[in-house]
Specification:
Blueprint: H1 29-45, H2 51-58, H3 66-81, E1 97-104, E2 115-122, E3 125-133, H4 141-167, E4 173-177, H5 180-187, H6 204-210, E5 216-218, H7 235-246
Parallel strand pairs: 1-4, 4-5
Antiparallel strand pairs: 1-2, 2-3
Helix pairs in contact: 1-2, 1-3, 4-5
Length: 249
């Protein structure tokens, strides 16, 4: 693929990938699996912009088809065109921990489960990120966002503890989400039709908010950089979010 033509987006928004059958499986599934494994290493190391795409493609490791292989090779073509995509860590920025959380409702074509995503910045420098398919089906967008908040809150509490221990000081911190419904569920213990079916494990975030350990703030969806960890995005959106994720702005 070193001589391939580059593309501007890691995933084709016009194609909705689904699980294949054994008849459609490629002759050597390990070829696809090796590509995905290498891309996973890239994501973990320095490329949060590929977190959703690679997580999405990894679902098809057990039975990859030619369509899935073509999608994986598209990521390699995207990488060729973005070799200079780097994270920066300016030393002059104030030490403030900011967490961004997002969810894409029901975007798994096979299970209709949603994807959770988060991205943390310390002093405007990106330090950790994740994209993950939710373990159960959410029945509404606020529920999907609330489930994503639970995932990010666990990481948020751990980062706060680690920073306090390493720096011996209280680091200012806030957690941002673009869904007011999820904030409302987390901030109020009232049970209603929207919340009574939510699994008890996800109310961990409410417990942390009530204890004052987590401050939830609303952010406009256009400014939520965790958006890149939950769904495929068009080129203008990627170009807008990339400088903010890199730490250049």
């Amino acid at each position: 693929m070193q001589d391939c033509h580059s593309v501007t987006t890691p995933i084709d928004l016009n194609h909705r990938l689904q699980m294949g059958s054994e008849k459609e499986q490629i002759a050597d599934p390990s070829y696809y699996q090796q590509i995905i494994g290498s891309l996973m290493y890239t994501v973990i190391a320095t490329r949060p912009d590929l977190a959703y795409t690679v997580t999405h493609l990894s679902q098809f490791n057990s039975c990859p088809t030619e369509i899935h292989l073509k999608a994986a090779k598209r990521v390699l073509r995207y990488l060729k065109g973005t070799r200079d995509w780097t994270l920066t860590f300016p030393y002059s920025n104030p030490i403030i921990l900011e967490g961004y959380c997002d969810a894409s409702y029901g975007n798994c074509n096979d299970t209709r489960r949603s994807f959770s995503g988060y991205l943390f910045q310390l002093g405007k420098s990106t330090i950790c990120w994740r994209s993950r398919k939710q373990p159960t089906v959410a029945t509404s967008t606020p529920e999907a966002e609330y489930m994503a908040l639970c995932l990010v809150t666990k990481q948020f509490v751990w980062l706060q503890s680690a920073l306090n221990e390493l720096l011996s000081l209280e680091v200012p911190a806030a957690l941002f989400t673009d869904n007011t419904g999820a904030i409302d569920i987390a901030s109020k213990a009232k049970i209603n039709d929207r919340t009574k079916h939510i699994d008890i494990q996800y109310h961990y975030v409410r417990e942390q908010v009530m204890a004052g350990n987590v401050t939830l703030l609303h952010i406009d969806g256009t400014e939520n950089i965790a958006d890149i960890c939950t769904k495929g995005l068009p080129r203008p959106r990627i170009n807008y979010l990339s400088p903010r994720i890199k730490g250049n702005k």
